[in-house]
Each structure stands twice: as structure tokens, then as C-alpha cells.
Amino acid sequence: MATETATKWVIDPMHSEVQFKVKHLVISTVSGFFKSFNGELLTDNDDFENAEIDFSLDINSIDTNQTQRDEHLKSAEFFDAEKYPQIVFKSTSFTKTDDEEYELKGNLTIKDQTKPVTLDVEFGGSAADFYGNTKAGFEISGKINRKDFGLTWDGVTEAGSIVVGEDIKLLINIQFTKQA
Description:
Blueprint: E1 7-11, E2 17-24, E3 28-34, E4 37-43, E5 52-58, E6 62-63, H1 67-74, E7 86-96, E8 101-110, E9 113-128, E10 134-145, E11 164-178
Antiparallel strand pairs: 1-4, 1-11, 2-3, 2-11, 3-6, 4-5, 5-7, 7-8, 8-9, 9-10, 10-11
């Protein structure tokens, strides 16, 4: 993409959220959020086809509504936030599949493991806000296996139940602001 002709969009953190869900004891789901993240989108056209997307999450901003669990997730047994403070995503393709749907492919890095992932994207549309800024909204969803990224901690109860599932569901609602 020729950066001199590209339009840059940046994440509006006040109107965006990054959520994940994982099975607990195989019978229920625990949800969490990352409260601090940033990213940008570069595009050559108005329909976002072939946009380049860079995104990062601050591990220390994890919030599962339970402080002890959050601290465990930040520890070396899971994310090892001291050594690897960010999760990073860099797109390799952004392909329109119908009027409001895209397929987003890219490289996801958690800890020191980088793997290709494919995510589904729904374009919510674009509009001007009260200040004349152009905004674009997207809902991104997908699933990854935590063990593929070195998140291998396992716990088993005395009855043999697995404490944390391997599959992590991602649900990311992002609003971008077009830069002048």
C-alpha cells in the first residue's frame, strides 16, 4: 500500500472494547476484558478492502472482575506480563466477503509465539460524530487455542474436571476515527 495515498484511521478507545471468553470447569463461561489497547487501520479506499491493521493490547489491563484471577493471568504461569507486556496483531489480508462482512487474516503474537489467525469482521457502518469526525465501526470475532500461544497452564480438580478451557472466544468492538 502506498502510504502517501493511504487514509489513516485510529482506534477511539472510549467507544471500543476487547472481550474474551473461556470455559471454566467445562460447564460455564468466564468473560474478561482488556482495558488498554491501541491500533490503526490504513486503507486506500472507502470500502476498507485490503486495509492494513495493526493492533496491540496491554496485558496489565486485563480485567475479569476478580483481582486474584487477573493477577494469576498476568503471572508467568499465563501471559508473563513482566516479560511480555503486550499482545500484538498485524494483518496480512482484509478481504470483503459480502456487503458488510470481511475476513481478517493476520499474525497474532502472545508471549513469544506468533501464529496466523483468521477472524470474522462485520462492518457496522460509518458516520460523522457531533464534532464532524468520521467514525467507522467494526465487530470482530473469532476463536484461538490458548496453548498454541504458550498459555499452557492446566488445572484439574480432584473430580477430574478441567479448570480452564483451551479455546478462547474473542469479541472485539472497535470504532475508528478517520485522521485528517
